From TrEMBL:
Keywords in alphabetical order: DNA-binding, Phosphoprotein
One Pfam family this sequence matches: Response_reg
Species for this entry: Allocoleopsis franciscana PCC 7113
Matches recorded under Gene3D superfamilies: 3.40.50.2300
Presence of keyword Electron transport: no
GO BP of this protein: phosphorelay signal transduction system
Protein name, as recorded: Response regulator containing a CheY-like receiver domain and an HTH DNA-binding domain
Residues of the Response regulatory domain: 21-149
Superkingdom field: Bacteria
GO molecular function per UniProt: DNA binding
InterPro entries noted in UniProt: CheY-like_superfamily (IPR011006), Sig_transdc_resp-reg_receiver (IPR001789), TCS_response_regulator (IPR052893)
Database matches in PANTHER family: RESPONSE REGULATOR RCP1-RELATED
Cited SMART domains: REC
Length: 165
């Protein structure tokens, strides 16, 4: 039975098989906060790690600089990638990840406000697993995150995070 939350959204309460690690690459603090809240309301069991730009995302994945400790920067099960990141943009980051034999199997969901057919086509050509247009309201975001959670964490099997190539 769906649970009704104060924001008016009905979220399905399910029990995921395991806690998953999500890496959110998002430069906007407000969007980071909204995503944290939406994940919490959607009751997706996760360990959420956040990076602020494309360079930081690649540092995290390659365990460089402040991300050298695996305990504080574990390999993600899923990457939520803002398409318009500073320093190294989403398309370049996506291309670099998919070109790396140790990282290419990590599913990547592109997050963007762009509904440009060119951006959608390019993201899939570069290997994105999904293209997600950010909803305009918080209620719609919670509903979308709930749907993403159902799909990515209950329906499909993700590759083991600790596995290479």
């Amino acid at each position: 039975m769906p649970t009704k939350y104060p924001c008016g959204v009905r979220a399905k309460v399910t029990n995921p098989r395991k806690r998953i690690t999500i890496l959110l690459a998002e430069d906007t603090i407000a969007d980071q906060s909204l995503m944290k809240q939406a994940l919490k309301i959607s009751r997706i069991l996760n360990n959420l790690y956040i990076v602020n730009d494309g360079e930081e995302l690649l540092d995290y994945l390659h365990r460089r600089h402040q991300y050298s400790d695996i305990a504080s920067s574990p390999r993600p099960d899923l990457i939520l990638l803002d398409w318009h990141l500073p320093k190294i943009d989403g398309p370049e980051v996506l291309q670099a990840i998919k070109a790396d034999s140790n990282l290419r199997r990590i599913p990547i969901v592109v997050l963007t406000s762009s509904s440009s057919e060119q951006d959608i086509r390019r993201s899939y050509e570069l290997g994105a697993s999904s293209y997600f247009i950010k909803p305009m309201t918080f209620d719609a975001l919670v509903e979308a995150v709930n749907t993403l959670g159902e799909y990515w964490f209950h329906i499909v099997e993700l590759p083991p995070a600790n596995g290479n190539a």
